[in-house]
Design goal:
The protein is α+β, with helices and mostly antiparallel strands. The chain contains two helices and three strands, in the order βββαα. It has one domain. It is about 25% helix and about 20% strand. β1 and β2 form a beta hairpin. The longest helix is centred in the last third of the chain and has 12 residues.
Length: about 80
């Protein structure tokens, strides 16, 4: 059903409920939603990788910022 011009958009049901959390693996951080769904992996420090990867601190900061997205978008 289409909305009339100027009508406020209906809020969509959230598919990835907050809060989101960050868990550390051997060489990655993974962001999970409240129900445990894995949303993002941020890899770091793999010397055998062909590409230059992030440092552990860079990866942690990126994962933490991803985990804060729901609260940032709700403002």
């Amino acid at each position: 059903m289409r909305q009339a011009a100027g009508a406020a958009p209906q809020r969509l049901k959230r598919r990835f409920p907050p809060p989101w959390s960050v868990e550390e693996g051997d060489n990655y951080f993974v962001v999970h939603d409240h129900e445990g769904q894995q949303l993002a992996y941020v890899h770091f420090d793999n010397p055998s990788a062909a590409a230059k990867l992030l440092s552990k601190d860079e990866a942690r900061r990126i994962a933490a910022n991803i985990a804060r997205l729901p609260e940032s978008l709700s403002r």
